[in-house]
């Protein structure tokens, strides 16, 4: 989804046009199929003029254990000339504070799953109309199934109530943008291996491989049968100079998916650097079977690199 600006006291103003969708079936399902939950201990920060972004972000960051105030976040997310905050800046700020901002999938069931797991949900709303939007960040902290209401930290209200119908309609008009902010070792209830890896991967390009390693290790515990999780863990170990650990992770990935030619390529490179040259060449030979042309080019380049590698290290891995 494209980023948008937000602002306005108690709400947030921007010029954009988003399509809404009917909330009727979901409203009925919420009343019939859910149980009530409210995260009463979630902190509250009253929103200053135009600054719903810093206040809402501070709420979920503090809830995750980061000691921060809305005032400290203003310089990170608030754009004075626009009187609001970009979604991209909200995401970047969460990462800057060592937390993983995880975008939910746009299904209300995922919002409820996070609430049931004890996590407040940062939500982006359009309090106005599609043709005249009023953007607003708030934090959803509960749902009353009997009354058909959502409970929120919003604006200057520590316990703002919205009916299911209103909450869903405003969420629809806001593009169904919802995020939970979690520690790198704390997997969201609604995450899949693929969506979690995608949320964590930016830490590697941001020069925070240690954070990525913690998150990938957590993923390997939840999804031990996912080859892509072990491959990602191997890559970050390698980036940290931890070749032995990288080799173990790559080996796990290959055990799960023997056809993963590119993982074998990385495994071979790592083995060679550890002094296991013969095993490295064997892995490349296996990877070349059935590899496509672009993969073959990479594999042959790695083979040449290994041949030129001058190492006297003794292979520390068991045969």
Mind sketching the topology for me?
Elements: E1 12-13, H1 24-33, E2 37-38, H2 52-63, H3 70-77, E3 78-79, E4 84-85, H4 87-96, E5 100-103, H5 108-116, E6 121-126, E7 134-144, E8 149-154, E9 157-163, H6 164-173, E10 178-182, H7 193-200, H8 202-205, H9 209-222, H10 227-239, H11 243-256, H12 261-273, H13 277-288, H14 293-308
Antiparallel strand pairs: 1-7, 2-7, 3-4, 5-10, 6-7, 6-10, 7-8, 8-9
Strand portion: 5-15%
| Largest beta-sheet details | 8 strands, antiparallel
Name the helicity range: 40-55%
Radius of gyration: 24 Å
- How far is the N terminus from the C terminus? 49 Å
Overall tally of structural domains: 2
Alpha plus pi helix count: 14
CATH superfamily of the largest domain: Cysteine proteinases
Mean pLDDT: 88
Q: Give the helices and strands as they follow along the chain.
A: EHEHHEEHEHEEEEHEHHHHHHHH
Structural class: alpha+beta
CATH architecture of the largest domain: Alpha-Beta Complex
Shape: elongated
What do you see in this structure?
With 319 residues, the chain is an alpha+beta fold. The chain is built from 14 helices and ten strands. The protein folds into two domains: 12-182, Alpha-Beta Complex (Cathepsin B, Chain A), CATH 3.90.70.10; 193-308, Serine Threonine Protein Phosphatase 5, Tetratricopeptide repeat (Alpha Horseshoe). It is elongated. The chain has helices at 24-33, 52-63, 70-77, 87-96, 108-116, 164-173, 193-200, 202-205, 209-222, 227-239, 243-256, 261-273, 277-288, 293-308, and strands at 12-13, 37-38, 78-79, 84-85, 100-103, 121-126, 134-144, 149-154, 157-163, 178-182. The strands form two sheets. Strands 1, 2, 5, 6, 7, 8, 9 and 10 form an eight-stranded antiparallel beta sheet that branches. This is PA2778 family cysteine peptidase. It comes from Banduia mediterranea.
């Amino acid at each position: 989804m494209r980023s948008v600006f937000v602002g306005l006291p108690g709400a947030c103003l921007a010029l954009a046009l988003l399509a809404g969708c009917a909330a009727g079936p979901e409203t009925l399902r919420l009343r019939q199929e859910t149980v009530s939950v409210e995260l009463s201990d979630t902190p509250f920060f009253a929103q200053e003029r135009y600054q719903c972004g810093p206040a809402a972000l501070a709420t979920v960051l503090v809830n995750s254990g980061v000691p921060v105030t809305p005032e400290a976040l203003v310089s990170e997310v608030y754009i004075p000339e626009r009187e609001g905050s970009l979604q991209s800046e909200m995401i970047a700020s969460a990462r800057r504070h060592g937390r993983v901002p995880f975008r939910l999938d746009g299904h209300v069931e995922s919002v409820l799953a996070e609430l049931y797991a004890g996590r407040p949900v940062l939500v982006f709303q359009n309090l106005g109309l599609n043709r005249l939007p009023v953007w607003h960040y708030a934090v959803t902290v509960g749902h009353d199934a009997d009354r058909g209401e959502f409970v929120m930290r919003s604006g200057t209200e520590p316990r703002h109530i919205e009916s299911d119908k209103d909450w869903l309609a405003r969420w629809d008009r806001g593009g169904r943008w919802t995020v939970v902010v979690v520690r790198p070792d704390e997997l969201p209830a609604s995450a899949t291996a693929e969506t979690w890896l995608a949320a964590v991967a930016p830490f590697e390009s941001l020069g925070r491989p240690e954070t990525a390693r913690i998150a990938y290790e957590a993923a390997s515990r939840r999804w031990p049968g996912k080859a892509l999780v072990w491959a990602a863990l191997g890559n970050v170990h390698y980036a940290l100079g931890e070749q032995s650990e990288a080799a173990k992770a790559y080996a796990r990935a290959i055990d799960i998916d023997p056809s993963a030619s590119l993982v074998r390529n990385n495994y071979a490179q790592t083995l060679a650097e550890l002094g296991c040259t013969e095993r490295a060449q064997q892995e490349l030979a296996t990877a070349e079977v059935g590899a496509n042309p672009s993969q073959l080019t990479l594999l042959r380049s790695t083979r040449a690199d290994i041949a030129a590698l001058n190492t006297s290290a003794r292979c520390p891995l068991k045969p």
